[in-house]
């Protein structure tokens, strides 16, 4: 990454560049799903190697 | 604002018990041919032009993946039309084999919500064919609505948008490309790991690893952000079809609607000459950086050593839309709900993930990692990622999250089955579907652009105007001659 100025608007309209703001947003609040029985039941049935075996032709 | 006609084509992944990629073309052909519903067999390929480029030239040939080509060594599958095994459904959709993937191409829609429903109905079409194929062969078969096999092979979910040719290539590219790069923040499907030398625990986009160029007409190899294929599927004097290949397959219908709505917003601004201009230092790098940014800052490097963020780019389209466009209710929803999601990303992730596939998948996997004391390096996470996209609602992890109320539900099965029978909008898909239902015996050619009938022993071709209003009275035509006359009167 460069250390250039941050643009908050597109170039053609009011280019007004701000000085660099390295702060950024805070980390997301990731809440766990409640009542995960059905999800866990399905996850437990999945072959752990399913993705390893999954090979596809390259498509578009 | 103009209601932009759009469609979605999804290539499904296929896992057939005891078989592999070597047999995948055979299996996809067989599965499509086992589709049990009403349909017309065949497709009219005369108007296809995959090597034509919007920039005014034609490629001598299309690139192919040399690794993938090894699967075809010494093989001959027969004639192209036999390999594709096209079926045209009574809703005007096309169902066929595309490079070993059963592909469902929705009927063209004007409403983003109608299109999202038809995209979901494709899963039902795949399931119906899969069930017959599985029972006939006596083997287990699974299909996945995703875009990667985690081993370097990708297959597409493409969007098509009807755009006036008069906008010109440069304006179209500059107006839409930034949106193509940043919309993954709201509509990426999410992926565990990386398929390149740059490692990642989790990514927003399934396609980012498979995009290597800014713009070209390729789709199988050297895939671009902005695809320049010039295949208008209508009168090329007046129209182009913007062929968007960098998006993901979504399981959450609201994400599908938003994915299409965001491009439509950029297109509407493009037509007005009011799209925001963002000059990226390296669009491909930006696409891949956003996909991998688990800090959710989504910084984008711009030319002249400036930078911005993906949310600020999205907001520039929203504010331009509010300023310059007469927004309809759908576009108001696109803007307001997207803004809410951008706020929720950092303030209320539980609400954010209800409408965003990557977030729903990531939260599910993060919870598993915590409860099982494992890590992102655990290889079974990729299996869970894959099974999120299983089209069988009794097995899909996405469907389990819907059942648990963790993500937004889509249309019910009654609504989806109705989608397979017809369309609700007066588009050319309505006319195509009617022709399949009422005059199939008279049809000798069907494609997106035209219907060709045999009348008194001679072929009669009708051009379906892509922006025409096809009236319900068409359904009252009792003979093919009347039907053709009415179609020719459509404005």
Topology:
The complex is a heterodimer of chains A (60) and B (491).
Chain A: H1 37-45, H2 50-53
Chain B: E1 6-11, E2 13-16, H1 24-33, E3 40-41, E4 52-53, E5 57-58, H2 66-69, H3 80-84, E6 87-88, E7 94-98, E8 101-105, H4 112-137, E9 141-144, E10 157-164, H5 169-182, H6 184-187, E11 191-192, E12 202-203, E13 211-216, E14 223-227, E15 239-244, H7 253-272, H8 283-292, E16 299-301, E17 307-309, H9 310-324, H10 329-347, H11 349-352, H12 357-372, H13 380-388, H14 397-403, H15 413-421, H16 428-438, E18 443-446, E19 450-455, E20 458-463, H17 480-488
Helix pairs in contact in B: 1-4, 4-7, 4-15, 5-7, 5-8, 5-9, 7-9, 7-10
What does this structure look like?
- The complex is a heterodimer of chains A (60) and B (491).
- Chain A has 60 residues and is mostly helical.
- Helix content of chain A is 22%, strand content 0%.
- Chain A has two helices and no strands.
- Chain A has helices spanning 37-45, 50-53.
- In chain B, the strands form seven sheets. Chain B has a seven-stranded antiparallel beta sheet with strand order 3-6-7-8-1-10-15. A three-stranded antiparallel beta sheet of chain B has the order 18-19-20, covered by helices on one side.
- By secondary structure, chain B is an alpha+beta fold.
- Classes of the chains: A mainly alpha (60), B alpha+beta (491).
- Chains A and B meet through helix 1 and helix 2 of A and strand 2, strand 17, helix 9, helix 10 and helix 11 of B.
């Amino acid at each position: 990454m460069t250390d250039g100025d941050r643009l908050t608007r597109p170039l053609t309209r009011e280019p007004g560049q701000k000085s660099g703001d390295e702060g950024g947003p805070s980390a997301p609040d990731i809440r766990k799903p409640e009542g995960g029985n059905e999800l866990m039941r399905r996850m437990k049935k999945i072959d752990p190697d399913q993705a390893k075996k999954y090979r596809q032709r390259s498509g578009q | 604002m103009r209601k932009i006609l759009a469609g979605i084509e999804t290539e499904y992944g296929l896992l057939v018990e005891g078989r592999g990629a070597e047999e995948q073309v055979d299996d996809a052909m067989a599965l499509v041919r086992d589709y049990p519903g009403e349909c017309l067999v065949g497709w009219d390929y005369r108007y296809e032009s995959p090597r034509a480029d919007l920039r005014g030239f034609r490629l001598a040939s299309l690139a192919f993946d040399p690794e993938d080509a090894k699967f075809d060594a010494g093989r001959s599958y027969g004639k192209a039309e036999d390999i594709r095994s096209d079926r045209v459904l009574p809703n005007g959709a096309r169902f066929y084999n595309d490079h070993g993937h059963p592909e469902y191409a929705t009927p063209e829609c004007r409403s983003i919500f109608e299109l999202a429903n038809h995209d979901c109905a494709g899963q039902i079409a795949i399931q119906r064919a899969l069930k017959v194929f599985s029972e006939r062969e006596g083997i287990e078969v699974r299909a996945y609505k995703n875009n990667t096999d985690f081993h370097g092979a990708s297959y597409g979910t493409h969007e098509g948008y009807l755009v006036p040719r008069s906008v010109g290539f440069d304006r179209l590219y500059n107006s839409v490309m930034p949106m193509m790069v940043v919309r993954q923040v709201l509509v990426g499907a999410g992926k565990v790991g990386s398929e390149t030398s740059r490692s990642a625990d989790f990514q927003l986009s399934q396609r980012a690893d498979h995009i290597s160029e800014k713009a070209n007409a390729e789709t199988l190899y050297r895939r671009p952000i902005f695809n320049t294929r010039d295949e208008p599927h209508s009168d090329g004097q007046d129209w182009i079809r913007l062929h968007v290949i960098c998006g993901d397959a979504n399981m959450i219908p609201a994400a599908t609607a938003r994915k299409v709505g965001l491009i439509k917003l950029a297109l509407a601004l493009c037509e007005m000459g009011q799209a925001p201009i963002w000059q990226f230092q390296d669009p491909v790098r930006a696409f891949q950086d956003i996909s991998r940014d688990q800090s959710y800052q989504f910084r984008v490097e711009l030319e002249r050593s400036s930078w911005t963020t993906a949310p600020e780019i999205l907001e520039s389209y929203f504010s331009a839309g509010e300023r310059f466009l007469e927004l309809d209710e759908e576009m108001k929803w696109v803007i307001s709900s997207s803004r809410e999601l951008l706020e929720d990303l950092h303030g209320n992730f539980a609400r954010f993930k209800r409408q965003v596939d990557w977030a729903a998948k990531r939260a599910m996997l993060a919870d598993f990692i915590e409860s099982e004391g494992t890590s992102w390096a655990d290889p079974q996470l990729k299996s869970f990622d894959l099974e999120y996209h299983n089209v069988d609602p009794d097995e899909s992890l996405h469907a389990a999250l819907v059942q648990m109320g963790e993500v937004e539900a889509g249309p019910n099965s009654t609504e989806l089955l109705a989608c397979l029978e017809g369309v609700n909008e007066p588009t050319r898909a309505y006319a195509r579907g009617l022709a399949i239902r009422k005059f199939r015996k008279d049809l000798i050619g069907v494609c997106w652009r035209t219907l060709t009938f045999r009348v008194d022993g001679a072929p009669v071709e009708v051009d379906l105007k892509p922006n025409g209003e096809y009236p319900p009275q068409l359904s009252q035509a009792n003979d093919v001659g009347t039907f053709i006359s009415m179609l020719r009167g459509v404005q």
